[in-house]
Write a structure and sequence with these properties.
Elements lengths: L19 H22 L4 E2 L2 H7 L5 H6 L1 E4 L10 H6 L13 E4 L2 E4 L5 H17 L1 H15 L6 H15 L7 H13 L1
Parallel strand pairs: 2-4
Antiparallel strand pairs: 1-2, 3-4
Helix pairs in contact: 1-6, 5-6, 5-7, 5-8
Bound molecules: zinc ion.
Length: 191
């Protein structure tokens, strides 16, 4: 995900301690939310345009470029029904999903505004993370990263996507392999 406006970015805050069962429950709720969004928007999904695939070919696994789907969010994304419950528990800095450029889930990117090549890059990094980790581990690492770091920007999966999209944006002809980069981070989490 990328917020539409940088000023909406959150600052790290101390989150209330949550037990593993509570975290597990929120992972399940988030997975259900993403599954429902995928089902809602997939009808309008299209593959990545051929010229974009060619521009990104030096960076991404062929499978990611050829099989990823992109869907416009009509109507716009709504915040999950479980947000009020999280707020009541004292959790702060929840990502306002009505205000993100795009959101990735498994094999699909749902976008809420015209998506730039840099944002496509960012979301494809997430799809590569999904590919390597599997949806279950991706969601767990995402949620745990949020609670451990205190905000969205501190989630290691996000930090990596931001770092790589910035690297691409600053030097689009200096090729690197996203699959290897994601593999390194995934490996660090396992050790
Ligand atoms: Zn992101």
């Amino acid at each position: 995900m990328r917020p539409l406006y940088p000023e909406l970015s959150s600052k790290p805050v101390a989150q209330p301690p949550l037990g593993p069962r509570t975290i597990e429950r929120f992972c399940d709720l988030l997975t259900r939310y993403l599954e429902e969004a995928r089902a809602q928007y997939i009808y309008f999904a299209h593959p990545l345009e051929r010229e974009m695939q060619e521009a990104l070919a030096p960076f991404f696994h062929k499978e990611i470029l050829e099989h990823s789907l992109f869907a416009p969010a009509h109507p716009h994304l709504k915040n999950p029904d479980f947000y009020p419950e999280l707020r009541r528990m004292g959790i702060k800095g929840l990502i306002d999903l009505r205000m993100v450029t795009a959101i990735a889930f498994k094999d699909i990117v749902v976008y809420q505004e015209k998506i730039t090549l840099r944002s496509i890059f960012h979301e494809l990094v997430h799809l590569e993370q999904y590919r390597q980790l599997g949806a279950h581990n991706f969601i767990h690492q995402y949620v745990q990263g949020f609670f451990a770091g205190g905000c969205y920007e501190a989630i290691p999966l996000e930090t990596q996507a931001f770092d790589l999209d910035t690297r691409f944006h600053n030097a689009p002809l200096e090729f690197f392999n996203v699959e290897d980069e994601v593999g390194r981070l995934a490996h660090q989490h396992q050790t």
